[in-house]
Amino acid sequence: MSQDTKVKTTESSPSAPSKARKTLPVLDPSGDYYYWWLNTMVFPVMYNLIIIVCRACFPDLQHGYLVAWLVLDYTSDLLYLLDIVVHFHTGFLEQGILVVDKGRISSRYIRTWSFCLDLASLVPTDIAYVRLGPHTPTLRLNRFLRVSRLFEAFDRTETRTAYPNAFRIAKLMLYIFVVIHWNSCLYFALSRYLGFGRDAWVYPDPAQPGFERLRRQYLYSFYFSTLILTTVGDTPLPEQEEEYLFMVGDFLLAVMGFATIMGSMSSVIYNMNTADAAFYPDHALVKKYMKLQHVNRRLERRVIDWYQHLQINKKMTNEVAILQHLPERLRAEVAVSVHLSTLSRVQIFQNCEASLLEELVLKLQPQTYSPGEYVCRKGDIGREMYIIREGQLAVVADDGVTQYAVLGAGLYFGEISIINIKGNMSGNRRTANIKSLGYSDLFCLSKEDLREVLSEYPKAQTVMEEKGREILLKMNKLDVNAEAAEIALQEATESRLQGLDQQLDDLQTKFARLLAELESSALKIAYRIERLEWHTREWPMPEEQVEADDEGEPGGDTFKDGESRAGQEGLPGPE
């Protein structure tokens, strides 16, 4: 059997790589390969949209570069054909899972309207060149049917780019160029149909010096179309019916284009303002409030400088609101990638569980302090700790001038006040004045948030309290006697609580036993009552008993000594 297995293996091994080489992989529609293929398809689609109509309306352009056009035409056709192959190898999502079965992918694609348009865009209309000649590019107008790939590529790029508003403006300008380009080609074709130089409205006679050049023809037509579509004016009046119809159509197109441009630009500006409002706090409301409340000019200037610093340096203070729509795990990953390195520098958080740090990262609140602003003062109640992300802070005396130490990026303070360490002589009060020397970016972690997270990690809480105790010992801020007294009090309290819990358990057990006995007694009583009801149904009614005595029926002689039926059975007789 081992030899047969080896033979089968050797026979099947060459075929497996060959099949792997022949089969193409399935693309993820949200992946990078599919995205770059869409960007590749932009070029043949844009080529057909711009060049075909230009070649059809400007004969000199078609005749002068025929070989180049044929090469580009069939290169774009080859890309169109490859695009169909890509469609047959692009998966789709079903119940959130990517389907990679090529049979299902092919059957789904064939049943879509997109497949019909893709086939229609590749119909070999060029065969008519044999009869009509190669100078009829209008035969390739069916290539416009692939324009949906252009829109899809633009949508994907807009979601991926870091500058979506700039991309929207560039896309709008491209659409405007295409519309003016098409209009200029139609204008030149109409001028040729009516006759060059026939009146002031059409293109001048190419026999005039300078107007016979192809570049001049296109630029003149493009300029004339731009004047019409932008409704600038300064265009010759039309004289013929065809010219009037062309102008009316262009004016209607200009009105629609103007509305589209205004709407698109308004949307872009609104999105930019919305993004600024989401990233940075609105200073207009604060400025108006300070004016209404007659805040002094110096304080008002400090507030304005703070807002200006945020805007210039692109600093955010509401990261939680910005990331609130992301799923919790994805939001945690983003926060970890941004802030975990800063949090891991804190001594009491070192060697903690990774999941604990991830929970704490989501609780960090960024804050920015202005020059000369106090972060905390001596004697204040400590409800949060601070981690310095950027900037410098000074530990100053009560006069605010004398500096004892300077804290830089990566350092932290206030961590002891948010951890309940037994024997802490300073309690939860601040022991120093901390003032910002310049603009300082800090991370704030509140006591409530830390307590909420540590409630799920009791081991981590013990480790952090031990580290905090070591820090207090080094600072001579730990009262050992008070710590021992608190520990003894806590142990006594826990012992009493355990006793109360035991007593409560005993009471619950007794109560359950009494409840069970009560239920048993109730069942017995119910059973006895039911037996009595069944036996009393056999007793004769009083009227029937009297009639039996009058008729001399031996109803009462059946039982001895006057005992009733119920008495024979051990039950109480009727009274």
Automatic annotation (TrEMBL):
The keyword Ion transport applies. The chain crosses the membrane at residues 34-54, 172-190, 244-263. It catalyses: NH4(+)(in) = NH4(+)(out); Cs(+)(in) = Cs(+)(out); Rb(+)(in) = Rb(+)(out); Li(+)(in) = Li(+)(out). One of its GO terms (cellular component) is non-motile cilium membrane. Residues 348-454 form the Cyclic nucleotide-binding domain. Residues 1-21, 538-575 are annotated as: Disordered. It is a multi-pass membrane protein. The keyword Transferase does not apply. Keywords: cAMP, cAMP-binding, Cell membrane, Cell projection, Coiled coil, Ion channel, Ion transport, Ligand-gated ion channel, Membrane, Nucleotide-binding, Olfaction, Sensory transduction, Transmembrane, Transmembrane helix, Transport. Residues 475-524 form a coiled coil. One of its GO terms (molecular function) is voltage-gated potassium channel activity. It is found in: Cell projection, Cilium membrane. Pfam families: CLZ, cNMP_binding, Ion_trans. SUPFAM superfamilies: cAMP-binding domain-like (SSF51206), Voltage-gated potassium channels (SSF81324). This is Cyclic nucleotide-gated channel alpha-4. The lineage of its organism: Eukaryota, Metazoa, Chordata, Craniata, Vertebrata. The gene is CNGA4.
